[in-house]
């Protein structure tokens, strides 16, 4: 460990000690999360006063481990996934001082939930093709359009909105990034039901929604650059979920332990599931260790891809180990959960929910493209519409 690393570790240890001396970790969790933020232990890499201590982000996992060990609830990170993993880092990198001061603390305490309003019916993998329009009106913007698959929109207080402000510019250059008040007049959130029965995401319609210009993030026309910060952080955050939420392998191990009949074929699949899970944990640990403050690199896509593909295989194995009971699913009644988990305590739900892992946060094909182009340096995908005005490009 270098001298700087040792010094930073001591800073974090001391902050932890002060926090735990002043606050019972098992007391009211919202109050504790607020104290954790004030102690600089929310995102340790942030500047002091903004939930951090200005040290390497690698030390955040130590904070979480220590707090979990003394019984501190850390579920705010899971409950406010879009907030913690995406909105927080984006605001720190591109937000105004007022955004950072007002929004980061209630985000960390999960008093204000965030959602991500990027995808549209005609723009998912190719999100830069989006059609939701924001046009200026004095010191406000008026937004019209439709977003889709917006996770947790029904409980969100704020949304990260990517909208088109210049239809005549090429698609990546005509976008601007905003914070939108999900309670503003004209925002309509309609549930979309998944095959688990749950409606964890929604369609969101904007009809003449007014956004003050002070809630613009970054320059007009620079939305793509800001969105890349959000997306790179999203992938890195998804890759870390195995550390925070556990793995479906825990389910497989429990089912395997209860089983009397153990064929060689099943044993082979269980061993492979174990190997995938260990690889994922090591990848997540390596990513957390190597990560610099700011925007994570494209390497975050490796853990995201492995998590998506292995979760599908492992949850299928869990269902097979459950036998005929695996065919039963408790209820398809529609519920609107107020947080998103991998559902790993129930084989049926875990199996159904895992199908979405290779779509959400970017599909596995897109992850492979990123790894090919940006990590391995292979030739780029052909992009014929890249330099044409967005308004001239045919759309479905
Ligand atoms: C559970 C869940 C939660 C989500 N939550 C959110 C959210 O909160 N906010 C949000 O904005 N979005 C969210 N999404 C949307 C998600 O980001 C998109 O579904 C995803 O990016 C894919 O876009 P698409 O559905 O339009 O599929 P398409 O982009 O139409 O892709 C269709 C198929 O074509 C393949 N494909 C597309 N382009 C290429 C290419 N260049 N090379 C190779 N293959 C390609 C894809 O891999 C896929 O198999 C969520 C999705 C799911 C399933």
Describe the protein.
This protein is an alpha+beta fold. The chain has 13 helices and 8 strands. A hairpin with an 8-residue loop joins strand 6 and strand 7. The protein binds flavin-adenine dinucleotide. Residues 115-116, 118-119, 124-125, 149-151, 201, 356, 359-360, 362-363, 365-366, 369, 381 line the site of flavin-adenine dinucleotide.
Question: Main traits of this protein?
Answer:
396 residues, four-stranded antiparallel beta sheet, 8 strands, 44% helix, globular, binds flavin-adenine dinucleotide
Helix content: 40-55%
Shape from CA axes?
globular
**Strand order of the main beta sheet, please?**
1-4-5-8
Distance between the termini: 55 Å
Determine the structural class based on helices, strands and strand pairing.
Answer: alpha+beta
N-to-C order of helices and strands: HHHHHHEEEEEEEEHHHHHHH
Describe how the helices and strands are arranged.
Blueprint: H1 3-22, H2 29-38, H3 60-69, H4 76-79, H5 81-94, H6 97-108, E1 114-117, E2 133-137, E3 140-151, E4 158-164, E5 175-181, E6 187-192, E7 201-212, E8 216-217, H7 223-239, H8 241-245, H9 248-258, H10 264-290, H11 300-322, H12 347-354, H13 364-375
Helix pairs in contact: 5-6, 5-7, 7-11, 9-10, 9-11, 10-11, 11-12, 11-13
Residues 115-116, 118-119, 124-125, 149-151, 201, 356, 359-360, 362-363, 365-366, 369, 381 line the site of flavin-adenine dinucleotide.
What's the gist of this structure?
This protein is an alpha+beta fold. Helices cover 44% and strands 14% of the residues.
